[in-house]
Design a protein that fits this description.
The protein has 374 residues and is of the alpha/beta class. The chain has helices spanning 15-25, 51-59, 63-69, 91-94, 106-114, 162-168, 170-175, 230-238, 243-253, 282-285, 294-311, 315-344, 348-370; strands at residues 8-11, 31-34, 46-49, 71-72, 75-80, 85-90, 102-105, 122-123, 128-134, 137-142, 147-150, 153-155, 176-189, 196-200, 204-212, 215-222, 260-267, 273-274, 277-279.
Length: 374
């Protein structure tokens, strides 16, 4: 399907939005971004790319660039807060060479996705106030009272999506849930971590992942009310963790401007489409980062959506096909996220007893189906 002279409007200029623009460009479509941030959605953090994300980026023409700029992840380790290894996964053995997981700076990934796109297509400081749908598509009214029309509107504006609220109202509010009061993300000097490693204790967990150039990406979350100052809560969380973890966090806390604090949230909607508007990525189905599938699912969404709306003469039929193709894969990730989260909430002695057997099994059960083509 072609949309004539009218561009497809994408609300959100992050990874999901850029991937959608790149995928649509492959079918000859023009896009117009509505990005609420003044300077785009880039920051200094990093992302984990499991094998299906690597395959999606290859499908977007970025396989070679990814190998040049990303840091391979050859193994995963799951440890106690006392540093005892519970189990490890040989990711090299599980994934093929062409889909080996890796870590990459978020800004680098966004730069790769934006290569070849028209910079003037991004309108920063664009805050969505209202969405109106009609038989010809829809109109977005921005905070400055300007109105933008499009035959297709894509919501790629993240877990706190304004477009989701405009599309689904009360359903959008009930679909959004806070899983934990506090989580943190940061970059830090590598303390000698040679693979993706997570430590879990009674109060919470922390992940450190090498991304190259002597740096690690860190993520931490509490399993109980953090309370008080977020930085103090993070310091309390890691106080019983291994020295290499504690020292890394202490160094980050010396320069807290690079520490990102937020609740841990998820989104589960019964539908992602309404009229000629559709949600993708975290706006549609944010999950806890247990399996690092947020970016992967967003990339896959973009590829499938572009194909479906381009191959169907009727746009509503194309959007229906998109949701039908994506629903099973997303539901699978949600189910496996729930299963691993449930195991993580077991009493510590029981959890540590079961994880050596349960952990590798859950890894295979989660990622095995995701090896299949989208």
């Amino acid at each position: 399907m072609r949309f004539g002279d009218a561009p497809v409007v994408i609300v959100g200029g992050g990874i999901a939005g850029l991937a959608a623009a790149r995928a649509l460009a492959g079918y000859g479509h023009r896009v117009q971004f509505m990005e609420r941030r003044a300077a785009g959605a880039q920051d200094g953090l990093a992302v984990n790319l499991p094998g299906n994300a690597v395959c999606a980026l290859a499908a977007l023409g970025l396989g070679e660039a990814l190998r040049e700029h990303a840091h391979p992840s050859r193994r995963r380790e799951y440890r106690t807060d006392g540093d005892r290894l519970l189990f490890a996964v040989d990711e090299d053995a599980f994934w093929s060479d062409g889909s080996r997981p890796c870590g990459i700076r978020r800004a680098t990934l966004m730069w790769l996705l934006s290569e070849g796109l028209d910079p003037s297509a991004i309108l920063n400081d664009s805050v969505v106030e209202r969405l109106t749908l009609d038989a010809e598509g829809g109109s977005i009214t921005l905070a400055d009272s300007s109105v933008v029309r499009s035959p297709l509107i894509i919501g790629a504006d993240g877990v706190r999506s304004a477009l989701r609220q405009e599309l689904f109202g009360d359903d959008a509010r009930t679909a959004h849930a806070v899983l934990a009061d506090a989580s943190w993300r940061f970059m830090a000097p590598d303390p000698g971590i040679d693979c993706w490693t997570v430590w879990a204790g009674k109060a919470g967990m922390i992940l450190l992942m090498p991304v190259g150039n002597g740096e690690v990406y860190g993520w931490a979350a509490v399993t109980r009310d953090a309370g008080g100052d977020p930085n103090e809560a993070l310091a309390r969380l890691v106080s019983t963790f291994p020295d290499r973890v504690r020292r890394t966090v202490e160094e980050v806390l010396l320069q807290p401007d690079g520490l990102y604090h937020s609740p841990l949230e998820e989104v589960r909607l019964p539908s992602w489409t309404r009229g000629n508007a559709v949600l993708i990525g975290d706006a549609a189905h944010a999950t806890a980062p247990v399996w690092a599938e947020g970016v992967a699912l967003a990339l896959e969404d973009a590829i499938v959506l572009a194909e479906c709306v381009s191959m169907h003469a009727d746009l509503p039929a194309g959007l229906e096909s998109y949701e039908k193709r994506r629903r099973g894969r997303v539901t699978h990730v949600q189910k496996m996220t729930d299963a691993m989260s449930k195991a993580a909430k077991l009493p510590i002695p029981l959890r540590n007893l079961l994880m050596p057997a349960v952990g590798p099994k859950r890894y295979r059960q989660t990622y095995g189906p995701l090896k299949a083509a989208i």
